[in-house]
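Dear H.,

Thanks for agreeing to be a second pair of eyes. The structure we're designing against is below in token form, covering all 369 positions.
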């Protein structure tokens, strides 16, 4: 009797089914991770926006928005509904395709950057071996959307704002990368998870020492924070917007949902950069240097924690992120906008030389210690 199914054919069908299952799991996993990052971007950005509204209000001795929700907590939700209902106006002389695509080009990198930010022990979408390189690269793409929007608007104020944003990227990308490279040298890894764990497991002359990188690299921390503010076009580095002279810079001609996407990009960028600073310099989800979270196994580093330890780690990370967001808001209230020549001089004559000195000191210390 002939067999109903040859053994080789059966093995081929099983292998094909396994590959299809793996492929489906890959796409399902990727979809869930992107969905998680989208939800995090929306929720945390709304919290950051609310913090900016209320913090600015109290710092300037005014109440701020109070009508929508308890203490004005739903104001940004109301603003989002308003933006959706507004008419989408496109200037007659604009490059319509580039004009329409630019907000998405600016927003998507802010979304994808969250894929590699660890927000708690074992809580991250991807632990890439080159996570730091990915984060810095993806964060640099957003300025292309700003430049596209400024050029495509057919408005001289928008064009000047876009050119200023490109000039800031060129000037401040160098100190940002050099400061981050110094962290990678000290941690001995480009993985953001490894960088967090190295701040709890580093050693000096063979002696285990738990120390956040902000302490040995205080200079690098200051350089990275200033460069990050310039990358985000946050005050006092907000010359690309400069509403007192450029109306609203590269966003002048945008209305409705496209304008809301640019605003969401700004808030999302604040959260992303604050998360990156937390991971690189502030110990990630560690509450205090040398103090493990409840349920963490000391032998397995600081990534294996129980449910309560994981939740506490996530809360600590988000608390640090919100503290950095508040610091950015305070700078907006406390300091005036820098002139374009001052902004460029700070980068080329101060930050870049200091960042070279910083990475040299860290490299020497890494070899010596």
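And this is the sequence the design step returned. I haven't edited it by hand at all.
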């Amino acid at each position: 009797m002939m067999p109903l199914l040859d053994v080789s054919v059966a093995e081929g069908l099983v292998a094909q089914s396994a590959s299809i299952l793996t492929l489906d799991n890959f796409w399902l996993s990727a979809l869930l991770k992107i969905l998680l990052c989208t939800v995090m971007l929306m929720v945390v950005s709304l919290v950051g926006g609310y913090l900016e509204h209320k913090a600015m209000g109290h710092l300037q001795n005014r109440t701020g928005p109070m009508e929508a929700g308890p203490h004005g907590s739903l104001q940004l939700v109301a603003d989002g509904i308003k933006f959706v209902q507004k008419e989408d106006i496109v200037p007659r002389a604009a490059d319509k395709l580039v004009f329409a695509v630019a907000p998405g080009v600016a927003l998507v990198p802010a979304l994808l950057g969250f894929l590699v930010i660890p927000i708690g022990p074992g809580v991250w979408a991807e632990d890439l071996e080159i996570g730091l390189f990915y984060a810095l690269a993806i964060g640099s793409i957003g300025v292309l959307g700003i430049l596209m929007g400024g050029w495509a608007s057919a408005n001289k104020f928008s064009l000047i704002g876009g050119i200023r944003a490109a000039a800031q990227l060129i000037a401040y990308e160098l100190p940002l990368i050099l400061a981050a490279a110094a962290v990678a040298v000290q941690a001995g890894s480009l993985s953001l998870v490894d960088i967090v764990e190295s701040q709890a497991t580093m050693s000096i002359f063979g002696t285990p020492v738990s120390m956040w990188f902000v302490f040995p690299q205080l200079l690098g921390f200051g350089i990275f924070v200033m460069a990050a503010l310039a990358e985000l076009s946050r005050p006092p580095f907000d010359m690309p917007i400069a509403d007192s002279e450029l109306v609203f810079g590269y966003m002048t001609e945008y209305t409705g949902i496209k304008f809301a996407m640019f605003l969401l990009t700004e808030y999302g960028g604040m959260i992303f950069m604050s998360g990156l600073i937390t991971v690189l310099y502030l110990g990630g989800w560690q509450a205090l240097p040398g103090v493990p979270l409840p349920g963490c196994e000391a032998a397995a580093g600081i990534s294996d924690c129980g449910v309560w330890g994981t939740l506490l780690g996530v809360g600590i990370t988000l608390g640090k992120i919100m503290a950095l967001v508040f610091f950015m808001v305070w700078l907006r209230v406390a300091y005036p906008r820098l002139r374009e020549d001052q902004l460029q001089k700070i980068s080329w004559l101060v930050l870049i030389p200091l960042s070279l000195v910083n990475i040299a000191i860290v490299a020497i210390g890494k070899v010596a210690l």
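Two observations from my side: Residues 75-368 form one domain. Residues 120 and 314 are 4 Å apart (CA to CA).

Warmly,
E.
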